[in-house]
Design a protein that fits this description.
- The chain has four domains: about 60 residues, Arc Repressor Mutant, subunit A, CATH 1.10.10.10; about 50 residues, no CATH class; about 90 residues, SH3 type barrels (Roll), CATH 2.30.30; about 80 residues, Alpha-Beta Plaits (2-Layer Sandwich).
- The protein is built from eleven helices and eleven strands.
- Helix 10 crosses helix 11.
């Protein structure tokens, strides 16, 4: 549990980094109720920090313009959090991230006391983040512009290249960005197709933020949309497998990127598309479930061949 003093200082940090902050948003970030958040604001005001409160339904708190606070100071936990974030950014593989990450790490190390600097250097030297590296890196500028448009609710124009190399010009309302399985995706409403779509950012050849505004659908889950889209993307093989288990158990054992799960009579129906039946066979065996392949017959044969190879391995052949 955090000490109240820590929360008060956190309020000050948040107000420094944001132009304005509403009471409910401040309370949510601190994981306290609105009344407690107001008490922290009052404590800072009593200390002479010029925090102004805007009244009304859409009121918020802000630091008086022009007020300057002391230079950045990090606690041990904050410095570790920043370092871990930078190391994770390095693994995400943005096109110009490497020099920016190294520069930020060097600046942080330079201002830290010796003991904390040694701790963070030990983390950098020994920690391995097993994140999927980006297979095709978009520019960091494109990521920033698309993210900014999504946050501001502004439409963007893009020149997009598909997997065959064909280019189209589109207007999209970006709902958010997702990094998954080594690739960056933008999700939103495509006005060319008149439907929600996802776009690989490394295939965006040009982007322009426009003046038109849009409203993001309430409760829309960008990550879930990407997972569902990848799982149902047409490929060479269309697969249906009946898993003899419950839906909850199947969700624990089957990766969401594999396919979709449906509760049916006799078990759970797994529907998937893929190019490589050998990979699918290995993934099905890894679930440890009893199953029946409905289609294709080639998958049943692939499972038989996999079983023979495993038996040969067990016998030392």
């Amino acid at each position: 549990m955090y000490h109240p003093t820590t929360r008060v200082l956190t309020v000050l940090e948040l107000l420094q980094s944001r132009e304005r902050l509403s009471g409910p948003e401040l309370a949510a970030r601190l994981e306290v109720n609105a009344r407690t958040a107001r008490r922290y604001i009052t404590m800072l005001q009593d200390m002479g920090i010029p925090i102004e409160a805007e009244r009304g339904r859409y009121g918020a708190y802000r630091l008086r313009p022009g007020f300057k606070l002391p230079p950045l100071m990090l606690s041990d936990e904050e410095a570790l959090a920043v370092t871990l974030g930078l190391l994770a950014a390095r693994r995400l593989g943005l096109a110009v991230a490497a020099p920016a990450v190294e520069g930020a790490l060097a600046k942080i190390e330079r201002v830290l006391p010796p003991r904390l600097r040694e701790q963070l250097q030990a983390v950098q030297a020994s920690l391995v983040l097993d994140l999927a590296r980006s297979e095709a890196s978009p520019s960091s500028q494109l990521v920033v512009e698309m993210s900014g448009a999504a946050q501001a609710g502004r439409r963007v124009w893009i020149r997009y290249r598909n997997d065959r190399g064909d280019e189209t010009e589109r207007q999209i309302d970006p709902y958010g960005l997702v990094f998954r399985q080594g690739r960056w995706y933008a999700v939103g409403h495509c006005h060319l197709r008149g439907a929600q779509r996802m776009f690989r950012l490394d295939r965006v050849a040009e982007l322009r933020v426009e003046d038109e505004r849009f409203t993001r659908p309430e409760g829309f889950d960008t990550a879930a949309f990407v997972v569902q889209s990848l799982a149902t993307m047409p490929n060479i093989w269309e697969v249906e497998v009946l898993l003899q288990t419950t839906l909850d158990d199947a969700r624990r054992r089957v990766s969401p990127i594999f396919g979709t799960l449906e509760d049916v009579e006799g078990g759970v129906l797994l529907r998937a598309h893929g190019d490589h039946l050998s990979w699918m066979a290995r993934e099905l065996v890894a679930t440890g479930l009893h199953l029946a392949v409905r289609k294709p017959a080639a998958l049943r044969e692939e499972l038989r061949q996999l079983a023979l190879r495993v038996m040969a391995m067990a016998e030392g052949a």
